[in-house]
Amino acid sequence: MKIMNNNTLKIIPEPVKSSINDGKFFINSRTKLISNDLTDDVLKFLRKFLKDYKGLNLNQEEFSHTINYDNAIILKVMNSNKTMQKESYTLQISKALIEITAGEVNGIFYGIQTLIQIIFLENIVIDEKSETITLPCLKISDYPRFKWRGFMLDEARHFFGKETIKKLLDLMALLKFNIFHWHLTDDQGWRIEIKKYSLLTEIGSKREGTIVPNAKIARSKGKRKVETDNIPVDGFYTQEDLKEIIQYANERYITIIPEIDFPGHVVAALASYPKLSCNGGPFKVSSLFGVHKDVFCIGNEQVFEFSKDVLKEVMKIFPSKYLHVGGDEVPTRRWNTCEKCQTRIAKEGLNNTKELQEYYTSRICSFLKSHEHILIGWNEILYDNLDIDAVCQYWTNNFDLVLDHIKKGRKVIMSEMSTIYLNYPIELTPLRKTYEYDPLPTELEENYVQNVLGLEACLWTEIVKDSKMVELRIIPRLLAVGEIGWSPKEVKNFERFEEKLNSFYKILDYYKIGYD
Ligand code: ACM
Ligand code: ZN
Fold this sequence. Notes:
Bound molecules: acetamide, zinc ion
Oligomer: single chain
Radius of gyration: 25 Å
Strand order of the largest sheet: 8-9-16-17-18-19-20-21
Number of domains: 2
Strand content: 15-25%
Largest sheet: 8 strands, parallel, barrel
CATH topology of the largest domain: TIM Barrel
């Protein structure tokens, strides 16, 4: 028997407004599912949940104005209701009906996610064997604080595969995330099939081993040899795999933003195509972490051809109009001594090697723009004349530049490293610290607030080797980020969040998501 706790619902993220009323609604085998103007996916999603969770096989009917419904779940898109904010919904449970209404299907989807949580958390179990779900009457009106609610996963350092990604997308949907940023390439692995450059996966998706903790460094003939575990790491997604995952994400109203990290963090690409480097290599897919000095040669036109060809294929696979092209941690060391890079500097009238990265970003940004795409890059891409539409993802350092970018009317996504990077141990970034992070900088005046699109929690996976470890890193902090992204600041409360968390574990159990 479950006891209601002070009439407070334990939904994560906390809804904008909720109230519990007298009475109960019973979902049973006679409950009908009624839709209007809905995509099949949304309806399928709820039907499938009720079938999997309780074995209920509910009938589905078209909404009719002439019927007075009873014992029904009604999902209604109110196309005429222009006042409803995108992604907002209302969920009302009365004795006769469960009604979810929204201005767009996304809203209905979030109403369903809330209903699913209520079913897990508030079902008054009278008889364990009964398939009836007993819910309290209530009303919820809800909408997100930020329109960009993301989670980034690095699959270059370790590869987890399709089933892990689908499980993560399920969890993200439940928490009302709408962006999955997928870091697919780096020094230690290239994980996306590019048909025109097959060596990227033939060579670039495999490495011989991974540096061990406290690795010993030996020197032989002036060369450094770092101790690795000699356990090969490999794996990549074919374009068919990617289409399957994109479809899965679409059904959950999640946009996938692929990241192809250029012009640094490219050692796996250089191992495959060494001519793209300043010194010609040879290179091995890296077993070490940190910043690598070998990057693309900006003096070489083939680098631009290569980058554009890769991005063309990426644009064909992913429907997102945003593409992430990295741009973080690009050392200029090789460029300083490269003849081709120096020629480029002279020819383009650049002042120094730092401006070579600006030159690269600007050409890639124009290319994406000419294909009606928007460039996203880490905050290292920022410079004065950066294209107005380019989006900056902030992670560390130079916050003044980011504020400046915002004040020029440009857009940012906040991924502040010390609070919402989930790869750090919980001792270093405790749950409260994550929960209390506010993506809106305190110094930002009201008229700039809309330039902060939202936030992304990031999981870098240098030391995260398998999907179990992914889960242990992201739980519970991803839940906190879910609440930051969706809930109004006024309804956030850490003590209450912790309480809600205790109940939420049974939902994680159902989805077989691990936690400490
Ligand atoms: C980053 O963490 N290098 C973006
Ligand atoms: Zn060069």
